[in-house]
């Protein structure tokens, strides 16, 4: 029986009435995304039609998932909410704090030793508040969710941007910051601006070297990293139906890289097959009873231009394999064209590592397709020219793959089998083959390839591809290798060619596992003690942020004007910093150290207006805080792109930054800033970004009149005494302005529960 089957049946029991009512209220056929949104309104049956991209709406998600790095701060916040138990089914998954180095057995043992304090904290908090706990080594959160919790037509939120992976099973699964999750854990509504809708019609059928990953690599090239912001991407068409459930998950997973709120597919036979194969026949049976409500109305897919805000059409029969990168996941290049492009841009042609896994591509099917290429190399006496690393998606995947001989194929190619965890994908990689900042190239099947992300080296050129393409490129050792057309020379000096990959959608002998790694919480957690040592370097009980004093912010100094791309990796790096995710003061020492200073093009080197000297961003900001001086961070477009990590909002807030003023925000980061009581605003005139000078002081003229839809006026005073008066836009509604006034959303929750 599936987890939380009664909850799932409850969703299905009410979906027909709610969707029928929504269709009546809206006055037209509905997309799948709209059906799920209207079926999950906090107030029950819909009474109004919402305006896409404008109306803020309260929703009631069915469940929550948290990974260990973000769960720490989320649960530290929830502990202050005054609740005895979480209000909706919630799980914690330990997958981020395991470093890939020697191989699964040694690495997992090391992680359990070095992070025992954090794992014990998460286990005890989970036990106390009725949260399901998945032990280190159990698997990557999104693969585990797909195998155990995702269900068609459901809505979930998760404290990781790639929560969207569950769209492969027909959910609306949305990445959020921890404060959003705390709202839902505490039994409160979750607020979201009603999304716009992007339709992607898939015609034809995938074949040969082209994989589901290539669909989203192509879409990323079309939409760019911000083209999906504020929108749900809904895939449909015969090409979608012909694709496996886990293939759909891969596409949805990387929708985070185009800024999409989430992505999804309509319920179909592949989803039913996957549910039954993963022991959830009861969910499949229940879904079949209401299947017409788990996909769009027929009229929508027949005439999609009438129902979507934007429409993209991709013929899968003509789609070519891609490798995207380096340094950004939307730089899309067909494999056969990459060699010339690399030489033009002086990207290293030699490939040092091929990495397969991550939450994006670590399913059984993914491993079989990559293994079919690896086996050819072994059988044809080809020695891999690059190092190889494999991260299975879950213990169930790993156990089944080992049983079926897949892992041995990789080992015969001298690959290292890492733990069932994120590993290199999120910077948890102790890479032994390089030191310093040597220029090099790697290929991987992950989702992000920002500078420094995998190994901390700003000169590692990372390219994103499908598992089978990563395998082929790693075997060749060359970025310009095109397995569709090129041959290789084996150890006997013979010219050989790799055949097309062959994959198996689901294990013919079924999935198997001895210990999946799940720990069920006790029924009554009131007697469970949760302790945090006051001398801990890893965990720290939170001190509430101070409420707004009701006055205009004046005399604020510029901390940094960030130049170009400034992702959450730049604002709050992962990798070695993950160990401080539960200790706000310690992790704040990485605040904005990756952001490029617009005035000297250096990182972590900004002018201190108090002394005139240059220093690190956190040190400089701590000096401003000690003197009681407010500060402003200025940024470019899509500021806060990437991970859902709320630390990127909490760290500047903790250090005393008052305002983040940018050209545009990524969705999750903007919400995180609001939740933590920060003022996140945008230039009304983008060219005003160029007016900001290094020694500027900011005076807010009318913050005392802060109101929805009302621009803010800022006097920018330059070092020579001249001034510019600029206007800033914001998207705060009445509730979000209350968060600002109270100092944070959590402060408001505590006040309401007092």
TrEMBL record:
A GO term, aspect molecular function: metal ion binding
Limits of the Aconitase A/isopropylmalate dehydratase small subunit swivel domain: 558-686
Cofactor: [4Fe-4S] cluster
One Pfam assignment: Aconitase_C
Domain Aconitase/3-isopropylmalate dehydratase large subunit alpha/beta/alpha residues, every copy: 34-477
Lyase keyword on record: yes
GO biological process assignments: tricarboxylic acid cycle
EC top class named in words: lyase
Pathway, per record: Carbohydrate metabolism; tricarboxylic acid cycle; isocitrate from oxaloacetate: step 2/2
Gene3D superfamilies xrefs: Aconitase, Domain 2, Aconitase, domain 3, Aconitase, domain 4
Catalytic activity: citrate = D-threo-isocitrate
Family matches, as InterPro entries: Acnase/IPM_dHydase_lsu_aba_1/3, Acoase/IPM_deHydtase_lsu_aba, Aconitase/3IPM_dehydase_swvl, Aconitase/IPM_isomerase, Aconitase_4Fe-4S_BS, Aconitase_4Fe-4S_dom, Aconitase_dom2, Aconitase_mito-like
Keyword 4Fe-4S among record annotations: no
Alphabetic keyword roster: Iron, Iron-sulfur, Lyase, Metal-binding, Transit peptide, Tricarboxylic acid cycle
Gene Ontology terms: cellular component: cytosol
Domain of life: Bacteria
Enzyme Commission number: 4.2.1.3
Cited PANTHER family: ACONITATE HYDRATASE B, ACONITATE HYDRATASE, MITOCHONDRIAL
Family: Belongs to the aconitase/IPM isomerase family.
UniProt name for this protein: Aconitate hydratase A
Species assigned in the record: Leptobacterium flavescens
């Amino acid at each position: 029986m599936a987890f939380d089957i009664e909850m799932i049946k409850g969703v299905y029991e009410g979906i027909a009435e709610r969707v029928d009512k929504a269709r009546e209220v809206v006055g037209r056929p509905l997309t799948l995304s709209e059906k799920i949104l209207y079926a999950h309104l906090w107030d029950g049956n819909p009474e109004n039609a919402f305006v896409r991209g404008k109306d803020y709406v309260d929703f009631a998600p069915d469940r929550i998932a948290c990974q260990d790095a973000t769960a720490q701060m989320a649960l530290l916040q929830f502990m202050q909410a005054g609740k005895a138990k979480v209000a909706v089914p919630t799980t914690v998954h330990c997958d981020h704090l395991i470093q890939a180095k020697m191989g699964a057995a040694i690495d997992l043992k090391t992680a359990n030793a070095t992070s025992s304090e954090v794992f014990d904290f998460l286990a005890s908090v989970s036990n106390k508040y009725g949260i399901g706990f998945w032990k280190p080594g159990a698997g990557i959160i999104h693969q585990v969710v797909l195998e155990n919790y995702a269900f068609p037509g459901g809505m979930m939120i998760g404290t990781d941007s790639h929560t969207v992976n569950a769209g492969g099973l027909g959910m609306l699964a949305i990445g959020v910051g921890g404060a959003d999750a705390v709202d839902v854990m505490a039994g409160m509504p979750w607020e979201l601006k009603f999304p716009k809708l992007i339709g992607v019609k898939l015609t034809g059928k995938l074949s040969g070297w082209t994989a589901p990953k290539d669909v989203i690599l192509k879409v990323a090239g079309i939409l760019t990293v911000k083209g999906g912001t504020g929108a749900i991407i809904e895939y449909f068409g015969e090409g979608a139906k012909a694709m496996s459930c886990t293939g759909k998950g891969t596409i949805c997973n990387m929708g985070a890289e185009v800024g999409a709120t989430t992505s999804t597919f309509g319920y179909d036979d592949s989803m039913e097959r996957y549910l039954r194969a993963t022991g959830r026949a009861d969910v499949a049976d229940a879904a079949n009873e209401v299947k017409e409500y788990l996909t769009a109305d027929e009229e929508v897919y027949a005439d999609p231009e009438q129902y979507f805000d934007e429409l993209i059409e991709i013929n899968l029969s003509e789609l070519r394999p891609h490798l995207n990168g380096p340094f950004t996941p939307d730089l899309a290049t067909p494999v056969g064209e990459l060699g010339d492009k690399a030489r033009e841009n002086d990207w290293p042609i030699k490939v040092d590592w091929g990495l397969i896994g991550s939450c994006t591509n670590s399913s059984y099917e993914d491993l079989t397709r990559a293994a079919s290429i690896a086996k050819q190399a072994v059988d044809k006496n080809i020695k891999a020219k690059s190092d190889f690393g494999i991260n299975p998606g879950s213990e169930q995947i790993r156990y089944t793959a080992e049983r079926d001989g897949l892992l041995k194929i990789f080992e015969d190619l001298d690959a290292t089998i890492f733990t069932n965890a994120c590993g290199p994908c999120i910077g948890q990689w102790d890479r032994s083959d390089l030191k310093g900042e040597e220029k090099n190239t790697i290929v991987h099947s992950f989702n992000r390839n920002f500078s420094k992300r995998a190994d901390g080296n700003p000169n590692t050129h990372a390219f994103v591809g499908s598992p089978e393409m990563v395998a082929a490129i790693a075997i060749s050792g060359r970025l310009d290798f095109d397995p569709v057309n090129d041959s290789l020379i084996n150890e006997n000096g013979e010219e050989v060619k790799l055949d097309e990959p062959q994959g198996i959608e689901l294990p013919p002998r079924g999935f198997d596992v001895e210990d999946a790694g799940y720990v069920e919480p006790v029924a009554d957690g009131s007697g469970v003690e949760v302790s945090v040592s006051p001398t801990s370097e890893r965990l720290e009980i939170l001190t509430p942020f101070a409420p707004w004093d009701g006055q205009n912010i004046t005399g604020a100094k510029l901390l940094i004007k960030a130049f170009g791309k400034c992702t959450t990796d730049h604002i709050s790096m992962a990798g070695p910093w993950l160990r401080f995710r539960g200790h706000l003061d310690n992790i704040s020492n990485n605040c904005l150290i990756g952001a490029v200073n617009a005035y000297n093009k250096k990182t972590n080197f900004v002018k201190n207006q108090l002394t005139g000297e240059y220093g690190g961003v956190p040190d400089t900001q701590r000096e401003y805080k000690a003197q009681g001086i407010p500060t402003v961070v200025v940024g470019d477009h899509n500021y806060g792109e990437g991970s859902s990590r709320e630390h990127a909002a909490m760290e500047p807030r903790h250090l005393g930054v008052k305002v983040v003023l940018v050209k545009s925000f990524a969705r999750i980061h903007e919400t995180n800033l609001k939740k933590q009581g920060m003022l996140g605003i945008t230039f009304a005139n983008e060219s005003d970004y160029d007016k900001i000078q290094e020694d500027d002081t900011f005076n807010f003229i009318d913050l005392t009149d802060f109101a929805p839809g009302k621009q803010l006026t800022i006097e920018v005073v330059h070092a020579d005494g001249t001034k510019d008066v600029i206007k800033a836009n914001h998207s705060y509604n009445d509730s979000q302005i209350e968060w600002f006034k109270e100092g944070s959303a959590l402060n408001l929750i505590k006040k309401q529960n007092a």
